[in-house]
Specification:
Keywords: Amino-acid biosynthesis, Arginine biosynthesis, Cytoplasm, NADP, Oxidoreductase. The protein is of the alpha/beta class and about 325 residues long. The protein contains 9 helices and 15 strands.
Length: about 325
């Protein structure tokens, strides 16, 4: 049987490079690379897109749409890491743990969209609770999240690392500045991930999403506070937790922390944003006070792992009928 070929269009970018590093050492996949001098050659890229078994697009949205328009081969399959097709009805959404049957749809599709990092965390905690009818579809959901600066791509990485280098070389400590440890953004509430969150959580209204960038390279915390007292029949914290446990009981890459477990807290008080770094895991937690009828849903993941390249490799494995953990677990 021939070894499947994979072309990464955008191999030199942050996500593309991470995917390449995960695939390059495998003997069950042949990674096809474009000549560096021809990265902007449309005809050469089109040739590779049509000849490879699967192409992974690690491109800006408009460039991804253009690349897809060049695909004419009926057998060529596309896994897109941009936001261009994430809510397109004729594309399979690449979150296999989302609901029953999602893996089968990914496996059988010629067009798969890789999820966003923030939506992965959000959907992991919210979607099962909506489907279990513990959270109504019209619930006014808010999302507070922070990601490492690597999520901003090469430009933001260069800004942060350049700043750190500059401060490290500062001979007068009193003159050294500090980079903000927490910087909210997207304050016009038009973030491109919101539609994705609403669509796959099956919500009547878009969630109020407030993302932030932190002064660390990798890692992510997604928080969804729930004022359960607003509901006529508010669920308990244990009910929320049990619904997540049941939904993910057979999943290798989604871990639900024991309810009330404080061992996951640093110094007994703090959640570490980088706890899932270097893995393809989503780590879920439920914190609640049944007396005040308040709860907090938390998801932690590596924004470059399950939030990007790790998810892409997982989806690629599913599309090729290979073991799902291949290239993700030592």
């Amino acid at each position: 049987m021939a070894i499947p070929t994979v072309f990464i269009d955008g191999e030199a970018g942050t996500t593309g490079l991470q995917i390449y590093q995960r695939l390059a050492q495998r003997d069950d996949i042949e990674v096809v690379s474009i000549d560096p001098d021809k990265r902007k050659d449309a005809s050469e890229r089109a040739k590779l897109l049509n000849n490879a078994d699967i192409s992974i697009l690690c491109l800006p949205d408009d460039a991804a749409r253009e690349a897809v328009s060049w695909v004419t081969s009926p057998t060529a399959r596309i896994l897109d890491a941009s936001t261009a097709y994430r809510t397109a009805p004729d594309w399979a959404y690449g979150f296999p743990e989302l609901r029953a049957g999602q893996r089968d749809r990914i496996a059988g599709s010629h067009r798969v969209s890789n999820p966003g990092c923030y939506p992965t965390g959000f959907l992991a905690v919210v979607s099962p609770l909506v489907r279990a009818k513990l959270i109504p579809t019209d619930f006014p959901i808010t999302v507070n999240a922070i990601s490492g600066y690597s999520g901003g791509g090469k430009k933001l990485i260069a800004q942060y690392e350049g700043f750190h280098t500059e401060q490290a070389n500062q001979t007068d400590p009193q003159q050294a500045e500090s980079v903000s440890p927490y910087s909210p953004y997207g304050l016009k509430f038009e973030h491109k991930h919101v539609k994705e969150m609403q669509t796959y959580a099956e919500l009547s209204h878009a969630p109020l999403f407030v993302p932030a960038v932190g002064d660390f390279a990798q890692g992510m915390v997604v928080q969804v506070p729930l004022p359960l007292w607003t509901l006529e029949q508010p669920p308990t914290g244990e009910q929320l937790h049990q619904a997540l446990v049941q939904h993910y009981e057979a999943e290798a890459f989604v871990q639900v922390a024991p309810y009330g477990d404080v061992s996951q807290l640093r110094d007994g008080n703090f959640l570490e944003a980088k706890s899932a770094n270097g893995t393809n895991e989503v780590q879920l937690s439920v914190f609640a006070n049944d007396d005040t009828q308040e709860a907090l849903l938390v998801a932690r993941l590596d924004n470059l792992g399950k939030g990007a390249s790790g998810a892409a490799v997982q989806n690629l494995n599913i599309m090729l009928g290979l073991p799902e953990h291949r290239g993700l677990v030592d």
